[in-house]
Design goal:
The complex is a heterodimer of chains A (407) and B (296). Chain A is 41% helix and 17% strand. Chain A has 407 residues and is of the alpha/beta class. Chain A folds into 2 domains: 212 residues, Response regulator (Rossmann fold); 142 residues, Rossmann fold, CATH 3.40.50.2300. In chain A, the strands form 4 sheets. In chain A, strands 2-1-3-4 form a 4-stranded parallel sheet, sandwiched between helices. In chain A, strand 1, helix 2 and strand 2 form a beta-alpha-beta unit. Chain B has a domain of 196 residues. Helices cover 78% and strands 1% of the residues of chain B. Chain B contains 14 helices and 2 strands; from the N terminus they run H-H-H-H-H-H-E-H-H-H-H-E-H-H-H-H. Chain B is globular. The chains are: A alpha/beta (407), B mainly alpha (296). At the A-B interface, helix 1, strand 2, helix 3, helix 4 and helix 7 of A face helix 1, helix 2, helix 5, helix 10 and helix 12 of B.
Chain lengths: 407, 296
């Protein structure tokens, strides 16, 4: 028995070692062959942020669509999208494997602030493009001198709060402001944007209340905001908590002016809040947008939305097309394809970064008309426009035109 | 035979960086760190019978200690022991509290620790980087690899010999029957808090190496999920077997990475099924089954 046991143990060890793939011979340009371009990415398909998984699926579906229509300059895009569970320690391991074993050309649309911060140094040290990270954290646009290979995509949270702040100062200069925010980089970025914009008038803020993503609900936070005497509420929260906040405010028969961050402003979310809390829960809520909302009848006959629906039906049958995260994934994949096209057949990482930092993309069929994904070597915030909107009778009604925070 | 296997494993670990790709060495560094943390659970849960759903918190304390120390320019020769001391101190305090708790109540108390420590690191943003976390100056990967595994070897040796001697016997006696143990002169206050502190110190060392390898720490990376993963690793390996910690660490490190190859959208399902299969066919953990097989 003794010998057999050790034999098995040794075989297991050898098997473990031999599963390490032999590294491929170095190519001229990693990830680029005559017929394909290999991109890598990470999304939380498991764990606390799994609700964002459709972003990765949407991007993949768009690449499949492009491949079936001839690809990019004669090459097909292969997207190695991995699950990091929103855990930075996992992200770094996966990304190293993507870079060193799979030899990806670039990392595209990795999701979340902590995962992207964790891989930023490594990717920049190795001159691997870290393109269009799926987070609105301001650092990814601001630190470009130190991290030139990294770039964001969506409007940053700081800007969005700035837009809200401007509106408040113009329309309700004597407001008593209460703020509900998620106690992480995302909520704090919004909070600091608003405080910054209010500047000397930040004493308008009478109360802030935070919650942790792991909290079951935000009822007590809303009650404390109400008892502070606030007449205006900012909700800087992810969808689940935003719905709870809207419903609780309505249940307390409290009628403040409500600002809701765009992350939670999709029509599908507003419908749930209306259903649970009644029309009073959502009527008059103010938010901002930059993407077309798939469940908004406003876009029923729009070409971009038709394309979205066709791709959803063909490549993601059975998926809930009203989930705006799929559309987000397609929109950012559109920009990626656009960049690869412009970089031409003779593809290098340097050339792609050259194109990225001189990009002026308009129109992206999934982004609001008039908003350009625009990057210059010194302004690395691709999108800085949003439009304000008000919820009325079950519909978002845009008003006031696009507001830019470029300067 | 056991000595031979240990030697073969040690040689393998020593030469792997020369023949394996860099990313694999990198992944093995994490496996080494997990092995240290799981060994802590083997001591506490396996040997002493005290459950902990909160080891992620001790790992977090170790990780942040190493991160803050590195940021301040302190060498890891100081940072890693410091991580062990601070995490160990927290463990000792919790161990004293835990004296009055057992079973489900202890599980809840340690679970509370796991949920309350990450938000704590979001405060004091000027030191901890707040919710956004903090980046650490990167260390050479190869140095961290050997440092992790040499530390693991030392900590395993300490655990192996300590558990074979008087300490191990006392802990086991406390687990099997506290009353009987006391009547034989075992001091439950001393040994239970010792087990907690010892175990937490190991978790702290693991946290330090995880943080230094990732070159980044953020509070939400060390939550409940990590605590549960470590416990899974301990059970999979074999709860009361020292070398089972290495097996458990290899499983929790590589199973999620390899299950990606099947379908990234189904990793947690593939991972879950694999765990169920292991526990169904090897109820004593992998090391436990092998040992039973070996002894039969």
């Amino acid at each position: 028995m003794n010998r057999r046991f050790w034999f098995i143990a040794m075989v297991a060890l050898v098997a473990l070692v031999s599963t390490i793939a032999v590294p491929l011979a170095a190519q001229d340009v990693p990830g680029v062959t005559a017929t394909q371009i290999l991109l890598g990415g990470t999304h939380p398909y498991s764990g606390p942020a799994a609700a964002y998984a459709p972003v990765g699926k949407g991007a993949l579906a768009y690449f499949s669509y492009v491949n079936d229509h001839g690809g990019v300059n004669g090459r097909k895009i292969v997207y190695e999208d991995k699950d990091d569970g929103y855990n930075p320690a996992q992200t770094v391991q996966i990304v190293r494997q993507l870079v060193e074993q799979d030899h990806v050309f670039a990392i595209f649309d990795s999701l979340g602030t902590p995962p992207n911060l964790a891989i930023r140094q490594y990717l920049n040290d190795n001159k691997v493009p870290q393109l269009f990270v799926a987070t609105g954290a301001t650092v990814f646009g601001a630190d470009y001198k130190k991290y030139p290979w990294t770039i964001g995509w969506q409007p940053n949270y700081h800007d969005e709060a700035t837009i809200f702040g401007k509106y408040l100062l113009d329309h309700k200069p004597n407001a008593k402001v209460g703020i509900l925010y998620q106690n992480d980089d995302y909520g704090q970025d919004l909070l600091s944007g608003l405080t910054h914009e209010l500047g000397s008038k930040s004493n308008l803020i009478v109360k802030t209340a935070s919650y942790e993503v792991t909290d079951p609900d935000v009822t007590s936070q809303i009650e404390s905001l109400k008892s502070s005497g606030a007449d205006t509420v900012f909700i800087f929260a992810t969808p689940k908590f935003a719905i709870q906040a809207l419903v609780t405010i309505s249940k307390l028969s409290w009628k403040p002016l409500i600002f809701l961050n765009s992350v939670s402003a999709s029509q599908s979310i507003m419908r749930i809040a209306t259903k649970v809390g009644g029309p009073a829960a959502t009527n008059g809520v103010i938010s901002a947008v930059y993407l077309k909302d798939p469940s908004d009848p406003l876009w029923a006959t729009d070409d971009g939305m038709k394309l979205y629906e066709d791709i959803m039906a063909k490549y993601l049958p059975g998926a809930d097309a009203s989930d705006a995260n799929y559309l987000y994934g397609m929109a950012v994949a559109y920009t990626m394809v656009d960049v690869l096209k412009r970089a031409g057949r003779d593809l290098t990482r340097e050339k792609v970064m050259q194109v990225v930092t001189h990009l002026h993309e308009s129109p992206n069929p999934f982004v609001l008309p008039g908003i350009a994904v625009s990057i210059t070597p010194t302004d690395r915030f691709p999108m800085r426009e949003e439009e304000m909107m008000r919820y009325d009778a079950g519909m978002w009604n845009p008003f006031g035109g696009l507001i830019s925070s470029r300067y | 035979m056991r000595a031979l296997a240990t030697a073969v494993f040690a040689i393998l670990i020593a030469v792997l960086p020369a023949i394996a790709p860099q990313y694999f060495t990198f992944e093995l560094t994490y496996a080494g760190a997990y092995a240290i943390a799981i060994l802590g659970l083997v001591i506490l849960t396996g040997r002493t019978g005290q459950i902990s759903l909160g080891h992620g918190a001790f790992v977090a304390v170790g990780a942040y200690t190493a991160a803050i120390a590195s940021q301040a320019g302190i060498s890891y020769a100081v940072a890693v022991p410091l991580a062990a001391v601070l995490a160990g101190a927290l463990g000792l305090v919790l161990g004293i509290v835990a004296l009055r708790l057992a079973g489900a109540y202890l599980a809840l108390a340690t679970f509370a620790l796991a949920t309350s420590v990450p938000p704590l690191f979001k405060r004091f943003g000027s030191i901890t980087g707040g919710a956004q976390g903090m980046t650490i100056p990167p260390h050479p990967q190869i140095v961290l690899y050997y440092l992790t595994w040499i530390s693991a070897a030392a900590l395993f040796a300490v655990a192996y010999f300590a558990l074979r001697g008087r300490i191990g016997l006392s802990l086991r006696a406390l687990r099997d029957s506290e009353i009987a143990a006391i009547s034989f002169g075992v001091n439950p206050v001393l040994y239970k808090s010792l087990a907690f502190g010892w175990s937490a110190a190991y978790a702290g060392v693991a946290g330090a190496f995880i943080a230094l390898s990732t070159a980044y720490v953020s509070p939400d990376g060390y939550g409940v999920a990590l605590s549960l993963t470590l416990l899974v690793g301990a059970v999979i390996g074999g709860l009361d077997i020292v070398w089972g910690a290495i097996v458990g660490a290899l499983v929790i490190e590589f199973l999620p990475l390899w299950s990606q190859a099947i379908n990234p959208a189904l990793t947690s399902i593939v991972y879950g099924i694999a765990l169920i299969l292991i526990m169904t066919f090897m109820p004593g953990g992998i090391a436990g089954s092998l040992r039973r097989h070996h002894e039969s």
